[in-house]
């Protein structure tokens, strides 16, 4: 018979700076979703996305998934941060027929960016 004194306990130290960075990033993206789409957002999870680029490079990033309340056309939104010069910008994409997952939301954003860079005829 095991006594109560033999129980092992796990203790955790103070949260690391990395945890605070992730929490701050999710909060910033949540605000961007709510501001850009004029509705309430609840964080539903994170997805690591790796997407090959046409030039042979790779887009790699963490996409946050938000459930939406009060939006007339969508119930979910995908959001991530991208570097632009010396700062980062928030990218948000509603779940639509073109963006049914975090992966396809990134693909749609990348395709849109490529289209805007094509020379005009």
Notes on the structure:
With 121 residues, this protein is α+β, with helices and mostly antiparallel strands. It has a domain of 81 residues. Helix content is 31%, strand content 35%. Strands 1-2-3-4 form a 4-stranded antiparallel beta sheet, with helices on both faces.
**Tally of individual helices:** 2
Low-confidence stretches: none
Structural class: alpha+beta
- Termini gap: 83 Å
Percent helix: 25-40%
Major β-sheet annotation: 4 strands, antiparallel
Mean pLDDT: 87
> Approximately what portion of the residues adopt beta-strand conformation?
25-35%
Strand arrangement across the biggest beta sheet? 1-2-3-4
Shape: globular
Number of strands: 4
N-to-C order of helices and strands: HEEEEH
**Rg estimate, integer Å:** 19 Å
Features:
alpha+beta; 4-stranded antiparallel sheet
Helix/strand layout:
Blueprint: H1 17-37, E1 40-52, E2 58-69, E3 76-84, E4 87-94, H2 102-117
Antiparallel strand pairs: 1-2, 2-3, 3-4
What can be said about this structure in brief?
It contains two helices and four strands, in the order H-E-E-E-E-H. The chain is α+β, with helices and mostly antiparallel strands and 121 residues long. The longest helix is centred in the first third of the chain and has 21 residues.
